[in-house]
Amino acid sequence: MKIVIKQTNELTGTNPLFVDKIVEEFMVYLMDDNGRPLSCEIAYGKAAKNDIVNGMLLEHFIPTNWENNKNVFNVKDIIEEVSYDEYMELAKI
User: Fold this and answer.
1) Which of 4, 7, 34, 80 lies 20 to 30 Å from 16 when distance is taken between CA atoms?
2) What is the per-residue pLDDT across 12-59, written as a single tens digit (0 to 9) for each?
3) φ, ψ for residue 72, nearest 5 deg
4) Which of 47, 67, 45 minimizes the C-alpha distance to 55?
5) C-alpha span between 24 and 44 (Å, rounded)
6) Long-range contacts made by residues 35-43, C-beta under 8 angstroms, separation at least 24?
7) DSSP string for residues in 28-92
8) Residue 7 in contact with residue 82, Cβ under 8 Å?
9) Is the pLDDT of residue 93 over 60?
10) CA 91/CA 93 separation, integer angstroms
11) What are the beta bridge partners of residue 9?
């Protein structure tokens, strides 16, 4: 299984107090071993994205015998992130 994160939008504030404020929109997928999505959650902002990813890691990926397996646990093999620019290039195809 794998976690795939796609940044799908950049939202800009319209209120005069928040005109320069940008909030990213993310789709966070839990994928099976064949590349099919098992679930998808939408997150607004990096903190919300990180909370969803951490929850998925805890629920689906952390070994039950953590003390004996923490040295071989590698998050980089589990998480794949697609930037907004990469997502827009993929959307053109």
Assistant:
1) 7
2) 878 787 777 889 999 999 999 998 999 999 999 999 999 999 999 989
3) -105, -5
4) 47
5) 6
6) 38/1
7) EEEE-TTS-EEEEEEEESHHHHHHHHHHHIIIIIS-SSHHHHTTT--GGGTEEEE-HHHHHHHHH
8) yes
9) no
10) 6
11) 25
86-90: Cβ within 8 A, 24+ apart: 87/6, 87/7, 87/8
Q: What is the pTM of this model?
A: 0.81
Asked if CATH classification 2.40.160 holds for the domain at 2-92, the reply, yes or no, is no
- Token readout for 1 is 């299984």
Residue 23 corresponds to which tokens in the numbers above? Answer: 């909030």
* Six token digits for residue 42: 């939408």
